[in-house]
Every structure is written in C-alpha cells, then in structure tokens.
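Title: Comparing notes on inverse folding

I've been comparing how different people in this forum approach sequence design from structure. To keep things fair, I'm posting one structure and asking everyone to reply with a full sequence. Here's the target:
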C-alpha cells in the first residue's frame, strides 16, 4: 500500500509566508463578500467604523466586529446568509438543546471545501482508498456524519454510513465488512469498546484508527480507547457554524490539532476584555472563515477555551495547532465561586482507574451550591461491602479536592447505571438555572 501522508501537501506543508499571502488574499475577498451581501454584518461594521478596505491582512482582523451565537439566533434563519437560497444546496444545524437552533447554509463549493478538510483528517489518521471508514457520527442536521462521510469519499475509502445507534448492528458490520477507521464521538467509542468486549468480538475487529471529536475528552480517555480497541485515536474539532468537523484535526504526533488555516483563520482573545492574545496564551478561540460563500462568518466567537501554537511538527505539517479545547467560556461551571471544568473531573477519574462514565450534578440549596459527582464502578470494582465502597469514595474525594480546590460529594453507582450516549455525552446537570 502506498502510504500517503497528506491529502493536500502543498497547503498542509506550505511555508508560513505562502500561507500568509493566501490568507491575505482570501480575507480581503471574504470581508467584501460579507459586507456586500449581509446587511446585518454591514451594519455591525459600520457601527464599528470599519470599511472592507480597512482590512488588508490578517493583522487587521482586530478591526472587525465579533459575531456570536446570539447574533445568529437573533437573525434566524436567513439573517447571515450571503447567497440567494437558489444557490444553496444544504442546511445543517447545531446540536444545542436550548433556545433557537443555529442553521448553517452551504453551496456546493462550501461542501467541497468542507469535505476536503475532513479528507485531510482521514489521511492524517492513515486513511487511504484501502480503508473501510465506519462513520458512527449522527447523520442528519448534525454535521458529524455528513462531514466525515464527504471526507471519506474524497479520500476514496469505502464508506460505511452507519450513523449512531444500534450498537449490535455496528459491531456486526464492523466485523463482517472489516472496518479499519472508526469515526464517532469519544464517548460512543468508549461504549462501543465496552460492547465489543462484552460480545467477545475483540479479536474479530480490524480497526486501526479512530477519528473522535464533537466533545471534550481527556488524554486518559484516549489511552483507554486506544488500549481497548487496539487503535490509534485521533482528535478532530469543528463546529456547525464554521462548517462542521475538520476545522482542525490531529496528526500522528497527537499534540494538538492542525487548523485548516487556509480556510479558517484562528485568533485567541480574552473572553472578558475581547483583547487579542499572543500565541501560547489561553483564551477564547475565534474563527474567521475566508473561503465560505453561503455563510461566511467573520470573527466568530466559539466560546471554546484553547491555546494556539506554531511550533514545528514532526508530521511535516506547518498548519498552526490548537490544543484540545479546555472547556468553554460559557459552560465552565462556577461552583461556590470556584471554576470547575468537567475535563478536570474526568482526568481524576481516569487517573484513578475509573471509566469515563460519570455525571456532575449541581444544585443550590439554601443559597449554597451543592456539588455531586456520580461515578460508575466497573464490574471488578463493584462490591457488596459498604466499607470498601466508602473507602473508594473517600479516595476519589481526596483526589478531586486536590485537583479542583473544592470538595464534591462523590457517589459510586452500579456498573452500567449511567445512561450511555450515542452522540455527545451529557455530563452535567445544573439545576441551579431552573
Ligand atoms: O460537534 C462538529 C463536529 C462533529 C466536530 C464531529 C467533530 C466531530 P457542534 O454540534 O456545532 O459541531 O458543536 C460544536 O462542540 O464549539 C466545541 O465546544 C465542541 N467540540 C467539537 N469538537 C471538539 C473536540 C460539532 N474535538 C462544539 N474537543 C464546539 C472538544 C469539541 N470539544
């Protein structure tokens, strides 16, 4: 098999000067396109006193106004559409459950570029036309299924559009058709691994790699999935508004995700002051789409807390890297005044040998926050002896206090008692808002 390391080597390994020139040219086009075709955006620019001609290069990005999910919701559904509907061929939508959904529009050009971004991710995970790509992300309005499906077609892999659910059938197809690359959320990958083990099919699967994203997952969870499925697990990031999966993707180095910066220019800002922060700083990730035609968002605030770095990568790609998102500036939990990221709790659990099946329940009683973490035991941990369970809970509590600086109530629950997710896992129940 000829090992192809890059899908588009001229872009993925371009010298910085070449990338910068490309971004400069495309950015000028994108700003003018949005200004000319989206009245709401034109108003925003005018309110900030900016004209398209003021943005000559990526250095001028800071002059542009930000866009937020609320802007898109307020303008639902067509307010940020830059083309006539007759030129659009697809709609996708965010997975949010509260408020109005955000709908994203695509013309064929946008779909082609999105597919190419996902193709880069698949090739980076070792994919080629020799592979069977098993897509268990949801299909439909969610971008996971359609995105990886399109990417797999571009690579020329045999594509299994499984969608999520029906785990028994997933395992059957996986074994019968020899799936080699699995694409799904990390929580579903962990569940599939568990189910494959239970079905005694571990030796029958041919998986070599997984492309997992759409939700936060820890390094510890990665190691668990890799061990249990016998694969290399790659992270992939994206959001519906910026096209879907494939905004960034991991290479074999597994030290962050390369951003497809020929299409999406990233910035990191301080979420409170909105000031642009230098490379290496932790802050909120903002993207400017420079090639999208139907839904060309500029300076879109993702709310994902992240770090950007431009270090040399052993894979040969020169594309800027983003670290794994470390939580969100909007769903970070503040419990009794302490900032808590669910990923910190996951890290504690995985380090202590627990599976990533847990639920964080926050409430407010008598004006004081209550904070409980329910953690599922494995069959091996399960015991009838109360003393043993209490000792385990105490141990976890000590570890969590050290990590978080705050003490949750830790409750161990029976194996398989926390509902599994076929899509994004629900990890937090915050009753304080109700
Ligand atoms: O989750 C798109 C996607 C599908 C990405 C499949 C990767 C794989 P949305 O439903 O719009 O789109 O949710 C976007 O999910 O702002 C992040 O908070 C989170 N997210 C996405 N990928 C990752 C990741 C898709 N790899 C929101 N790690 C984003 C952590 C992620 N969080």
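Reply #1:
Here's my take.
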């Amino acid at each position: 098999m000829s090992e192809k390391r890059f899908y588009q080597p001229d872009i993925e390994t371009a010298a910085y000067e070449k990338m910068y020139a490309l971004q400069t040219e495309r950015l000028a086009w994108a700003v003018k396109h949005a200004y000319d075709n989206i009245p709401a955006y034109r108003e925003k620019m005018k309110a900030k006193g900016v004209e398209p001609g003021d943005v000559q290069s990526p250095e001028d990005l800071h002059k542009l106004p930000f866009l937020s999910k609320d802007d898109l919701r307020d303008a639902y559904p067509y307010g940020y559409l830059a083309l006539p509907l007759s030129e659009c061929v697809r709609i996708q939508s965010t997975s949010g459950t509260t408020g109005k959904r955000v709908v994203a529009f695509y013309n064929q050009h946008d779909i082609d570029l999105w597919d190419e971004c996902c193709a880069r991710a698949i090739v980076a995970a070792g994919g080629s036309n020799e592979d069977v790509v098993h897509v268990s992300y949801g299909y439909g309005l969610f971008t996971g299924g359609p995105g990886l499906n399109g990417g797999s077609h571009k690579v020329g892999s045999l594509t299994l559009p499984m969608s999520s659910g029906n785990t028994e059938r997933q395992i059957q197809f996986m074994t019968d058709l020899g799936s080699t690359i699995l694409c799904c959320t990390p929580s579903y990958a962990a569940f599939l691994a568990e189910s494959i083990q239970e079905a005694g099919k571990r030796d029958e699967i041919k998986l070599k790699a997984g492309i997992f994203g759409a939700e936060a997952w820890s390094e510890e969870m990665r190691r668990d999935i890799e061990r249990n499925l016998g694969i290399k697990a790659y992270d992939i990031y994206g959001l519906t508004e910026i096209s879907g999966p494939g905004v960034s993707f991991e290479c074999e180095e597994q030290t962050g995700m390369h951003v497809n910066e020929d299409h999406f220019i990233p910035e990191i800002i301080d979420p409170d002051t909105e000031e642009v922060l230098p490379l290496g700083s932790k802050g909120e990730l903002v993207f400017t789409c420079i090639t999208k035609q139907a839904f060309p968002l500029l300076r879109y605030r993702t709310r994902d807390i992240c770090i950007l770095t431009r270090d040399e990568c052993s894979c040969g790609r020169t594309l800027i890297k983003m670290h794994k998102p470390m939580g969100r500036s909007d769903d970070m939990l503040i419990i009794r005044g302490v900032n808590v990221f669910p990923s910190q709790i996951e890290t504690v659990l995985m380090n202590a040998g627990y599976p990533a099946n847990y639920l964080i329940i926050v409430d407010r009683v008598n004006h004081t926050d209550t904070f409980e973490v329910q953690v599922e035991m494995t069959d091996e941990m399960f015991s009838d002896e109360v003393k043993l369970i209490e000792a385990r809970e105490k141990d976890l509590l000590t570890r969590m206090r050290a990590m978080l600086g705050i003490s949750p109530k830790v409750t161990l629950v029976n194996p398989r008692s926390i509902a599994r997710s076929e899509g994004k896992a629900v990890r937090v129940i915050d009753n304080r808002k109700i």
